[in-house]
């Protein structure tokens, strides 16, 4: 396509933009694409959906939605959607770029491609996934990495992981980082009291936010919270925000064996406003996954002036810096000690809050969108066959 005669044309995989169902990659898609499409009205964007999109995801007159099936929610349907349906669209539109915020590509297509590969958890912990999903990820993603002109990712940890496992030149991998929604901010003490009355019967609480996936380490978090409660006279509760989509046997057994299971409050999925409220009123956010490519709840807590307990592995130390208590995610006593520190050491709490507010300035959606746009430009301007 002669760009002197036609506007730049970018096709985007937006299948994870689902109203009231946004999670990590969905939020990345929403926040970066909203900014990029508005900042570049001269570019034609084609958003590909596998179901009728909400109007709020059509960010401007330069965004054209295309809806086609089948709904891509199973490995077999992934293959049909990307290798047949997406391939046909790309062949018809002949765009300058195919951007995929969830990392999936069409191997059949010759369109220059930029996947965003957030992490490779499935390579390190394949047993955490159902067999079909495990096979799909481990067969397709190395091939996506080889096919891509460039790759974007959300941390230097993930960049190095992709470069090592998939033999990709690190110079061809761009780090965008993630951000946190601007609505996350501290709330007044009176508001905290109201929020705690609503969610925890007025008690202080530790907060977990995320999909209840094995790598989020809920089983050890439950055990650590039980140990913490058994060693000291605290009335602190544990709030768990997220759907029980991956409520596996080890997670269920760890919960059922708790002496203090009645002090665990399951909130299910919350909307953005509710999530901001429960974060801002928390005693601390406990985010002790054993594998993450980034960890958005860490930055959300920083923005709210809330201390963070997080893991000392993968990307979490990169995000947290000196602004969180780092723990060994495999050692429940390490997690329990951090909980005790949060409850009893006011000087440490204040220092973490100060450091967190400063740290949060490094991770904004404005910066992530700018970095993704730079990666888009580099990809388009890279000579390809």
What is the CATH superfamily label of the largest domain? Glycogen Phosphorylase B
Judging from the principal axes of the Cα atoms, what is the shape? globular
Spatial sequence of strands, sheet with the most strands: 10-9-8-11-12-13
Question: Architecture of the largest domain in CATH?
Answer: 3-Layer(aba) Sandwich
Helix content: 40-55%
Domain tally? 2
The main pleated sheet reads as: 6 strands, parallel
Q: How much strand content do the residues show? A: 5-15%
* Mean residue pLDDT: 94
Q: Which parts are unreliable, with pLDDT below 50 for 5 consecutive residues or more?
A: none
Tally of alpha and pi helices = 14
Question: Count of DSSP E strands?
Answer: 13
Amino-to-carboxy terminus distance: 14 Å
**Rg over alpha carbons:** 21 Å
What name is given to the CATH topology of the largest domain?
Rossmann fold
Going by helix content, strand content and strand pairing, the class is alpha/beta
- CATH class descriptor name of the largest domain: Alpha Beta
Q: Could you give the order of the helices and strands?
A: EHEEHEEHHEHEHEHEHEHEHEHEHHH
Structure description:
- The chain has 385 residues and is α/β, with parallel strands linked by helices.
- It has two domains: 9-179 and 365-380, 3-Layer(aba) Sandwich (Rossmann fold), CATH 3.40.50.2000; 189-360, Glycogen Phosphorylase B (Rossmann fold, 3-Layer(aba) Sandwich), CATH 3.40.50.
- The protein has helices at residues 24-39, 75-93, 121-124, 131-147, 156-166, 189-200, 218-231, 249-256, 272-280, 296-304, 316-320, 332-344, 346-360, 365-380; strands at residues 9-13, 44-49, 63-67, 97-100, 113-115, 151-153, 173-175, 205-209, 237-241, 264-268, 284-287, 308-311, 325-327.
- Strands 10-9-8-11-12-13 form a six-stranded parallel β-sheet, sandwiched between helices. Strands 3-2-1-4-5 form a five-stranded parallel β-sheet, with helices on both faces. It has a two-stranded parallel sheet with strand order 6-7.
- Helix 1 (24-39) crosses helix 14, helix 7 crosses helix 12 (332-344) and helix 10 (296-304) packs across helix 13 (346-360).
- The mean pLDDT is 94.
């Amino acid at each position: 396509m002669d760009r002197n005669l036609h506007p730049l044309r970018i096709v985007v995989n937006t299948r994870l933009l689902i109203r009231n169902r946004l999670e990590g990659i969905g939020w990345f898609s929403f926040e970066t694409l909203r900014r990029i499409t508005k900042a570049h009205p001269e570019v034609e964007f084609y958003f590909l959906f596998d179901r009728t999109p909400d109007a709020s995801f059509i960010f401007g007159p330069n965004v054209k939605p295309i809806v086609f099936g089948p709904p891509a929610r199973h490995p077999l349907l992934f293959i049909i959607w990307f290798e047949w349906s997406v391939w046909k669209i790309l062949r018809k539109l002949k765009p300058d770029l195919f951007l995929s915020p969830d990392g999936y590509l069409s191997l059949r297509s010759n369109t220059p491609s930029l996947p965003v590969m957030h992490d490779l958890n499935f390579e390190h912990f394949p047993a955490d996934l159902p067999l079909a999903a495990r096979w799909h990820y481990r067969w397709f993603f190395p091939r996506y990495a080889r096919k891509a002109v460039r790759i974007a990712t959300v941390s230097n940890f993930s960049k190095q992981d992709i470069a090592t496992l998939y033999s990709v030149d690190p110079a061809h991998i761009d780090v965008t980082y993630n951000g946190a929604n601007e609505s996350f901010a501290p709330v007044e003490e009176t508001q905290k009291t109201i929020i705690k009355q609503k969610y925890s019967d007025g008690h202080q609480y530790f907060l977990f936010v995320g999909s209840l996936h094995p790598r989020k380490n809920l089983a050890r978090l439950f055990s650590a919270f039980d140990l913490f409660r058994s060693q000291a006279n605290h009335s602190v509760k544990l709030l768990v925000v997220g759907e029980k989509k991956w409520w596996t046997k080890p997670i269920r057994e760890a919960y059922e064996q708790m002496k203090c299971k009645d002090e665990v409050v399951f909130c299910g999925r919350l909307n953005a406003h509710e999530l901001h409220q429960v974060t801002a009123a928390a005693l601390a956010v406990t985010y002790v996954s054993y594998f993450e490519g980034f960890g958005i709840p860490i930055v959300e807590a920083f923005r709210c002036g809330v201390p963070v307990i997080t893991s000392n592995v993968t990307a979490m130390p990169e995000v947290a810096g000196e602004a969180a208590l780092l723990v060994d995610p495999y050692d429940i006593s390490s997690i329990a000690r951090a909980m005790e520190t949060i409850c009893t050491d006011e000087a440490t709490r204040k220092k973490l809050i100060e450091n967190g507010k400063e740290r949060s300035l490094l991770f904004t959606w404005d910066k992530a969108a700018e970095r993704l746009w730079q990666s888009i430009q580099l990809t388009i301007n890279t000579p390809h066959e």
